[in-house]
Write a structure and sequence with these properties.
Largest sheet: 8 strands, parallel
Number of helices: 7
Order of helices and strands: EEHEEEEHEHEEHEEHEHEH
CATH class of the largest domain: Alpha Beta
Helix content: 25-40%
Strand content: 15-25%
Radius of gyration: 20 Å
Oligomer: single chain
CATH superfamily of the largest domain: SPOUT methyltransferase, trefoil knot domain
């Protein structure tokens, strides 16, 4: 079943329209026909079985058949990461973390950041495409880019707060810090790592230094490692 994203979905309506880009994809790329079954999501947790009523490159309409019950994920992962100089690598992280499972991503502007800005619309499209591909009906939230100091000052108190950095110091393996943790925030620095001042500021604000293994990882790999570790811990606790 193909999944389509309809952010303004109103299930009470008898007949609904796919957004223009989704209509084009359904008609011209997938070549779907009237009566074909599709999935429709609003991206905030609802998934519906539906059937196409009209198929046109500029306007596809559908009717909802029923809602598909969803398992509620009670734990949340928030990764704050300095976008890479090569934006393709950052987009790769967004794609893969969306497929695996993540709730929030915040781009960070750090002292040693080589990329000073991002294009939210482009990044949001990466997230939507990855969520549809993996049949997720709750899409990650992409926060606006923010400075490291601003993020630290407003970090949530109801979460386990972790920072992954490359300096030699006492660190706990990230897996140990994730056991039974409901909400987790992980800081991932730029290619040049966090500055010593940034690391100390985070620690002063309650962030715990963690290790991501013996290898020195690229920024996007480190962030995906943290995403995998969180989800493996979550899957273990769900049994």
């Amino acid at each position: 079943m193909h999944l389509f994203y309809c952010p303004e979905l109103s299930p009470a309506d008898d007949q609904l329209l796919l957004p223009p880009d989704e209509s084009y994809h359904a008609a011209n790329v997938l070549r779907l026909r009237v009566g074909d079954a599709i999935g429709v999501t609003d991206g905030i947790g609802h998934l519906y079985n539906a059937a196409l009523v009209e198929v046109h490159a500029k306007k596809c309409s559908y009717r909802i058949i029923d809602e598909v019950p969803q398992k509620i994920r009670t734990r949340e992962l928030h990764i704050a990461i300095a976008p890479t100089k090569n934006i393709d690598r950052f987009e790769w992280f967004l794609e893969k973390s969306t497929e695996i499972g993540i709730e929030t991503v915040t781009p960070l502007l750090c002292r040693y950041s080589e990329r000073k800005e991002v294009k939210p619309d482009r990044l949001s499209k990466v997230i939507v495409a990855a969520a549809k591909q993996s049949m997720h009906c709750r899409f990650p939230v992409l926060q606006p880019m923010i400075t490291f100091k601003e993020f630290i000052a407003n970090a949530p108190d109801n979460a386990i707060k972790l920072i992954a950095h490359c300096e030699d110091s006492v660190k706990m393996p990230i897996q140990r810090m994730l056991d039974h943790a409901e909400n987790v925030v992980v800081l991932i620095g730029p290619e040049g790592d966090f500055s010593p001042e940034e690391i100390q500021l985070a620690i002063d604000k309650g962030f715990k230094p963690v290790s991501l293994g013996e290898s020195r990882l690229r920024t996007e790999t480190a962030a995906l490692y943290a995403t995998m570790a969180f989800n493996l811990s979550w899957d273990k606790d769900s049994f």
